[in-house]
Design a protein that fits this description.
about 270 residues; mainly beta; Immunoglobulin-like; 3 domains; five-stranded mixed beta sheet; five-stranded antiparallel beta sheet; about 50% strand; rod-shaped
Length: about 270
């Protein structure tokens, strides 16, 4: 009995295994060079978490990954390629790892109460950290904005935001804001106050006195600049208690020019 020998000829179209970074919300394009003129292909298997569009360009297959889910981390794609002579190439696995994207500070502004920051999101990150003048001041943020109240408004500050991916930290570019140079109006904020009270519009030599509700002098100081920050300390250097206080500001001639009430809350 004669055996019929059937020979299947497969042409191996070389495709290197690639590690490609893709970012949720963006389209990533990958070109596979086959060294053969491709006429058709079949997607054999695809990981959930992304969509892929394919295009043939002579001996290249162009893959465009989109609709990437934020929860996506690692996946793969298997394809089978057919050239113009009818030969089929082995399929390979392309591995995809979601890229770690550094934040971008979108806006930064200062007002008399502090500095407001907002930044672009880094999909898939664990949290964000905030840096002021190179020093980390806040960790574990889950939103994309922050209001920094612990500043002196007549000083300049530079900020950076980092996205945390496990043990890796992706730091944004530095963005700076100039302090408010001149404030002519006498103002007091915040009120109620929890950590500090800012007095603006002062002149050097102005006297600031703070009294408790019984009329006892709690704190007194001569201004050295247009801004003075009271950190809620009494004459002995201890934190004052919660309650209502009265402040009085005297000019260099000893004339009372401003007074008002402050609420201190703990």
């Amino acid at each position: 009995m004669r055996r019929l020998l059937v020979v299947f000829i497969f042409l191996i179209i070389a495709i290197s295994i690639q590690a490609v970074e893709i970012i949720p919300g963006e389209v990533t394009e990958v070109t596979i060079h086959t060294n053969r003129t491709v006429c058709d292909f079949i997607i054999m298997k695809k990981t959930c978490g992304f969509e892929v569009d394919c295009e043939i360009a002579e001996d290249n297959i162009i893959l465009r990954f989109n609709s990437v889910e934020e929860s996506f981390n690692v996946g793969y794609l298997k394809i089978l390629i057919k050239d113009t002579e009818g030969f089929t190439g082995d399929y390979e696995t392309i591995v995809f790892v979601k890229a770690e994207k550094k934040p971008e500070i979108k806006s930064i502004s200062m007002n008399i109460e502090g500095v407001h920051l907002s930044w672009s999101s880094s999909p898939g990150c664990d949290s964000y950290n905030i840096y002021r003048n190179g020093k980390r001041i806040r960790t574990g943020l889950n939103n994309t904005q922050y209001f920094d109240k612990n500043i002196e408004i007549d000083k300049d500050y530079c900020y950076q935001v980092s996205a945390i991916y496990g043990s890796k930290e992706c730091l944004s570019d530095k963005e700076c804001v100039e302090g408010i140079a001149v404030i002519t109006e006498i103002m007091t904020f915040p009120n109620p106050a929890k950590n500090k009270v800012v007095f603006t519009g002062l002149e050097k030599g102005y006297k600031l006195s703070i009294f408790n509700i019984s009329g006892e002098l709690v704190f007194s100081v001569r201004a050295e600049d247009k801004i003075f920050i009271w950190y809620l300390l009494n004459k002995a250097g201890k934190k004052v208690s919660s309650g209502v206080y009265q402040y009085v500001i005297f000019n260099n001639q000893g004339k009372r020019i401003k007074q008002g009430k402050l609420a201190i809350v703990k």
